[in-house]
Structure formats: structure tokens, C-alpha cells
């Protein structure tokens, strides 16, 4: 049975110049019974999250969010830290962190000694790349749809080390076979030039457009060629099933705050024991770093000694920051276990519902807009929680074929969605057209996506009338 708590009053004061605006939201909170669960798409489940009633959260994939029970766990960790700072940070926190590591390791079927936490996937990618010692002739392979911050990381590495890079170009939609063949050609090209393909970076699911990548095949291809595989699974854990023991990548980083319902920032960094010797430093370098022997006096470490591996200890304390998002992860895992859908529960229910919703939402919105979903002939791009829908806009008429103007129109649409429609939908100009990325989630229903389709239709009509150019 569901039970009802007293009304919760949230008072948020916002100051604009000399004016003070007071917003009052009143939520009738429904608490869930772990024995009966919460069905996907139900009001009971939606009410566990902290949304403004006037806001539709249609872009979960960018920054994620978390439910009230996880917020409570977050605040409890923070309160424990503030109650006894030294006792908590030096002694209690490492134990709580181990519990969180055990929880996430179990979820992805990885040995607990291979998993640590970093704030986000970008930090994880940087941590790996900046630990690799590159020599003349070493090549970093990456794909055209790499996340922008990671491509800039590669650029900086190539500016400051002996490494060079090779981007594998293509335009979606492409088949999985075509993408893997492009990778093989790139490897052959590098080797034919007498160079060494040292490491390859690729996604599990591309950010924009939001499409699934045949990462399993690419990990295998890297293994066959002796290339280090660095998997950017920013959209990974909580989104698609993971078995890291079976996949066996050389490095993998996955945001937990996007799809697993942990607070920001929290990401899993997986490094199998065979490669942990390569990751000598965190980012930034902190007390866990072990310098090469020089014969000098050891550098003082003010933290308590530990019997854990050097790799685990290295990432346990990386400067003084709020690590409560990490220790909140077990609460997120427990919350997810109570979610149900059509007789399924936990991860199976969540992933089944969201992927089914993404496919249906894509069809519904394309019907409203009379356009199409971005998909390949095999139908593999949409095997995730995203659907990419083309907007009914003429790029030649509106942007004259200029990418810069097209991007400005995309920015105008994004701003209008936030300012006038109280929502946000990610948008990209790709392959000569504007596409929106629909992001399915357990607290959304098809009614939300029908509203989204009609809203996008209205905004596109405004763009066609020239509003975005004013």
C-alpha cells in the first residue's frame, strides 16, 4: 500500500535586480512500498523525483537527476561529515566508499578491485590519456562523433606529447558493419605508415546524435590488434546492460549520475588489474601517487595507512571535495530495485520500459512532425533510450547552407523551449538537417511525448516564419 505524508512546502527565493520573487510549490508526497514496487510511468514513481510541477524533464540524458531517497542519502553523508569532519573523512568515508564500490561492481559484474570513482566521464577519459606515456609514432584513434570535450582532450594531448591522432570520419546513419570496417581501415592506414595505433577511444552510445555504437565489436577488434581500448560509456550504466568481465575493455568510464540516479558528479572508472600499473596518477595528482624510486626521503601522506591496492587507494582521496555523490550510490541501486514494469523489476524493468518508450516516442513525434527517425537499415542505432527525430525545417531556406547560421537557429530553439515552454530537448545540426534527441525515462509517458511533438511543431512553425532570424 502507498502511504501519504504531510504536505511539503518548498520556498525558493530568486533575486532579479531589486525584485524578489517567491515561488511556492506544494507537493503531496507519495512514499513507495518496497514490497509492491513502483510501476514505470505511474504518478507514484514520478512523485519520487524533485521536479518543478511546471517543468517537463525531457532531457534526462544530459545531466540526469535523482529521487528523494537518494537526496536523503546524499544529505545524510554530508551531515555525518559535518558532524565530525576528521573522523568521517579519514576513517568512516573510506569504508562507505568501499560499500559503494561493491554495489557498482556487482551491478556491472566486475571485480571490486577494478572499480573506482571519478566525478564524470570527461575526467575519466582525461585520467587515462594523461597517464599513458606516448612515444614517437603513437597514434590515438577516435571517431567523428566523439564527445567534444574528449576530442579537445585528444587535441591537447597531441599538442603536448609525442602522440598524434587520427579521426575516423563518417556521417550517421551508418551500419554497424560500416563503422567497424572504417575502424579496420584506419588501423591498416596507421600500420602501413609505420606508426603504432596505441589507443582507441569510442562510445557505447553517442551523445549527439543519441545512437548506439557497436562497442562490443570494437573492444574485440582492439584486442585482436593489440590496441588499448578506452570506452567512453558516459551513457552506459543504468542505460544498457553491462558485463565488464565478459566485455573486458582495457579502460571504461561511465557516468552514474546520468542514468543510474546518483547525484552529480559520480562516474565509474573501470581498469582491469593488468592495466592498473599504467594509471599511476589521479587527476589532479594527490596523496595516493607513488613516485618512482629516487633514493630520497618519502613524501609525507597525512592520511591513515591502508591495506588496499595502490590503484584503489590512489582514487580514494583526490583533494578535498564533496564525495557524498559516491557514497549515495547504494541508495540509488536500492531505489531502482523497487521499480517495476509488466511483471519485470529493477534493471530489467527500467531498461525494457525506457527502450520501448524511446522507440514509440520517436514514431509518435515523427508522425506529428511528418519527418523521420535517424536509423540505419539494421535498426541498431536506436537500441538505447534515445530517439533522434528530424525537424521539419528547410536548411537551405533558413540557413543558406551555412552551418554557423544553422547552429544559431538550434540555439534559438533550445532557448525558446526553456524560456517559453518550460522544457528542454537536445538539438543538433547533423547531416544537413536539424535533429532533436528524445530521452526516454521511467517518469515519462507517451502523453509527455505527444506534448513534446506538438510543442516542437509550434516552435518549428515560428522558425519557418523567421522568428529565429530576428
Automatic annotation (TrEMBL):
Q: Name one GO molecular function term.
A: transferase activity
Family matches, as InterPro entries: Aminotrans_V_dom (IPR000192), PyrdxlP-dep_Trfase (IPR015424), PyrdxlP-dep_Trfase_major (IPR015421)
Q: Which keywords belong to this entry?
A: Pyridoxal phosphate, Transferase
- Pfam families xrefs: Aminotran_5
- Asked if the Swiss-Prot or TrEMBL record annotates the protein with the keyword Transcription, the reply is no
* Record-annotated Aminotransferase class V domain positions: 95-373
Name-wise, this protein is PLP-dependent transferase
* Origin species: Aureobasidium pullulans (Black yeast)
